[in-house]
Write a structure and sequence with these properties.
Layout lengths: L5 H8 L2 H11 L3 H12 L29 E9 L5 H19 L20 E6 L1 H6 L28 E7 L2 H14 L4 E10 L28 H7 L13 E10 L1 H4 L4 H8 L36 H5 L11 E2 L2 E5 L9 E10 L6 H11 L6 E11 L13 H4 L1
């Protein structure tokens, strides 16, 4: 798991109780929970977020196993025509240095706005590399970056498609996230242009209740089956074989999902829970137990009928027998935009982000099942799709940079 400051981990849980539960699931030491309780006694509502940081250095990039922050700017970039391997190297060196400074609350070189970076508020900046970059640098593209296929129900829009690079910028203060985004865009204009930006949000800390799992705009706890410990992350997320440059990396898939809230809100609560396969209040499977208990697809009611609809979202996403590898880390954010004139009233949805070792063994088979018969398909439409290799972290070497093991 990425290292989060004591104060940062307190905020990430929203309350001391929720944070302690999250740490327990992640296998953190009891001493850290005790430290957080001490920090709670020092709580200052006027400054408690300002100094919280997430460690930038480590084996993995921050912003993956990091607990969700409240705000997201996801920015796609494309290299200018004629870009070279040296251009890729220069940009990633520059970005790594600037991102490290911003995430630590320091002023990057060239910035005239030190006040804007003084409150990191759990800022993380995560860099991803698209398939075409391998062509630019003259290296063979790895199989895990083969194109994600279009599914039958997709209505993909070109303006939310694949780009050469992506920055996932997350934090708990929207002004800090905005400034970090602007700085990273401004510092890179010699090499790349901005393709798109997807903005998202989650609950403000302290408002999400006891579960650390965030809610989407359907009211659903989204991510109940996420990996919750070191072993789960090793099995599902971190690449541990293949070329040396890929070790400790992962693959991000981004899907932009439009959600039709107007027709969803016409359903009664029982119909909504039937489509999801889980209770909306606490995320527990309709077969019983708590949010993090396994669903029982064989459970029946007094009439012998399945308790969980076989075409519900939870049932279709569940790994079939013999395929435990079909699991991944979901780290999604909601979006809510002004209505499009003449279109449906809601212009809302999900910036679906997931991390895994290989999308073609994990995301693709899951999404294929969902595309075939997920009951939620009546209220959602996939309108964007992209995939990126997320290089490993930079370790403890302050001169290291993203993707150095590949580029050198």
């Amino acid at each position: 798991m990425s290292e989060v400051s004591r104060r940062g981990f307190l905020v990430a849980g929203g309350t001391v109780a929720a944070s302690a539960a999250l740490i327990a699931r992640g296998g953190q030491a009891p001493a850290q929970a005790a430290a957080m309780r001490r920090d709670a006694e020092e709580f200052d509502e006027h400054s408690y977020l300002a100094e919280y940081t997430v460690s930038f250095d480590g084996a993995h990039q921050a912003g993956i196993s990091t607990p969700h922050q409240a705000h997201l700017n996801l920015v796609g970039f494309d290299f200018h025509a004629g870009a070279s391997r040296e251009d890729v190297q220069r940009l990633l060196k520059l970005w790594t240095s600037d991102a490290r400074a911003l995430c630590q609350g320091e002023t990057p070189p060239g910035s005239l706005e030190p006040e804007m970076s003084a409150s990191p508020a759990n800022l993380t900046i995560t860099c991803g590399i698209g398939p075409r970059v391998f062509e630019i640098i003259g290296e063979k593209r790895p199989g895990f970056l083969d194109p994600i296929p279009a599914f039958e129900l997709d209505e993909l829009e070109e303006n939310w498609g694949q780009t050469d690079l992506v920055l996932q910028i997350c934090g708990d203060d929207p002004t800090t996230v905005s400034h970090a985004t602007r700085h990273m865009v401004r510092s890179s204009k010699t090499y790349v242009s901005t393709g798109w930006m997807q903005q998202g949000f989650l609950n403000a800390h302290g408002t999400s209740g006891e579960s650390p799992t965030p809610r989407n705009l359907f009211g659903q706890l989204d991510g109940s089956v996420n990996p919750r410990g070191v072993e789960d992350f090793a099995e599902q997320v971190w690449i541990d074989d293949g070329p040396d440059w890929a070790r400790d990396s992962t693959v991000m898939v981004v899907r932009r999902i439009r959600m039709n809230l107007d027709t969803w809100e016409e359903l009664d609560r029982a119909s909504r829970e039937n489509a999801v396969g889980r209770r909306l209040d606490d995320g527990a499977p309709l077969s019983g137990g708590g949010e993090f208990d396994d669903i029982d697809l064989h459970a029946t009611d007094d009439y012998g009928l399945p308790v969980i609809d076989r075409n519900s979202h939870a049932a279709r996403a569940h790994p079939p027998a013999g395929h435990p590898e079909q699991r991944l880390l979901r780290r999604s954010y909601n979006y809510d935009l002004p209505p499009v004139p003449g279109d449906q009233l809601s212009n809302s949805g999900l910036v679906f982000i997931c991390f895994q070792k290989d999308p073609h063994e994990q995301f693709v088979p899951i999404q294929k099942r969902l595309d075939e018969r997920d009951l939620l398909n009546e209220w959602i439409t996939h309108i964007g799709s992209a995939a990126y290799w997320i290089p490993p972290g930079v370790g403890r070497d302050r001169d290291a940079y993203w993707a150095q093991s590949l580029l050198e």
